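Lab notebook, design round three. We kept the backbone fixed and only want residue identities now. Task for the bench partner: fill in a sequence for the structure below.
Input structure tokens:
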């Protein structure tokens, strides 16, 4: 069996991996794991990723979790064009810097903002935190360059754009109020290709039309929200 990617395109890290693989013509079998159906808790999926999270990769007998590790594995194995993860020491360090930063900053505040749609008590402070992260994204990473880690698209851009392309970010008008980020988004979309960009985000953009969670669903999600908020 060749390369298998276990994904749900509702998930930001899954969309980053999906775009990367498709854009680089990496042949893979898509194994859809529907989070909303709890398929990530199945015993069969635990064989692939004992952490029971998507994305996950299986390449023969080798299995791998964590989107950043998966992106790096794919780029090394399939020798993706240099701009994704440059050989140059300092250009690579710029990409590494973003990939390290985003876990506890942009990713963390976007995730919490999303869940606070379900449990709105602490929304204001999370939105302030998200705003601060967006400011840093502009001032520290994008600066006056075309992309987050320099003049060419890299993994850093994929990880960031897939984070910001979801209904909550759209609801927070991330791009409307930040023309610099809006222009960057257009460049990323053009570099990835409009069709692939839209294909990858189709499911998550439709999610904004879902009705708000009812009380029973909120109760069910509470333990998960507690973990995510702390
Ligand atoms: N740090 C991980 C995060 C993976 C992750 O949290 N995946 C979520 C979807 S975005 C998931 O599978 N959640 C299921 C759960 O936690 O039960 C990565 O970048 O791959």
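Proposed sequence:
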């Amino acid at each position: 069996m060749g390369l298998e990617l276990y994904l749900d395109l509702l998930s930001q890290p899954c969309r980053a991996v999906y775009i990367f693989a498709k854009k680089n013509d990496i042949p893979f079998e898509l194994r859809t794991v529907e989070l909303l159906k709890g398929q990530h808790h199945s015993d069969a999926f635990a064989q692939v990723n004992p952490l029971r999270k998507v994305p996950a990769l299986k390449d023969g007998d080798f299995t791998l979790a964590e989107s950043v590790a998966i992106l790096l594995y794919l780029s090394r194995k399939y020798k993706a064009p240099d701009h994704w993860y440059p050989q140059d020491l300092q250009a690579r360090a710029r990409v590494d810097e973003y990939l390290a930063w985003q876990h506890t900053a942009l990713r963390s505040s976007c995730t919490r903002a999303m869940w606070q749609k379900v449990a709105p008590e602490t929304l204001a402070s999370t939105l302030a935190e998200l705003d601060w992260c967006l400011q840093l994204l502009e001032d520290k990473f994008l600066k006056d360059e075309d992309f987050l880690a320099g003049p060419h698209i890299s993994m850093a851009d994929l990880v960031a754009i897939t984070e910001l392309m979801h209904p909550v970010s759209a609801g927070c008008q991330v791009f409307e109020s930040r023309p610099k980020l809006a222009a960057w988004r257009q460049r990323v979309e053009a570099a990835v290709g409009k069709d692939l960009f839209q294909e990858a985000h189709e499911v998550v953009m439709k999610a904004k039309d879902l009705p708000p969670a009812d009380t029973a669903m909120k109760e069910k999600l509470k333990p998960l929200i507690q973990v995510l908020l702390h």
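Keep this in mind before ordering anything: The chain has two domains: 3-80, 83-209.
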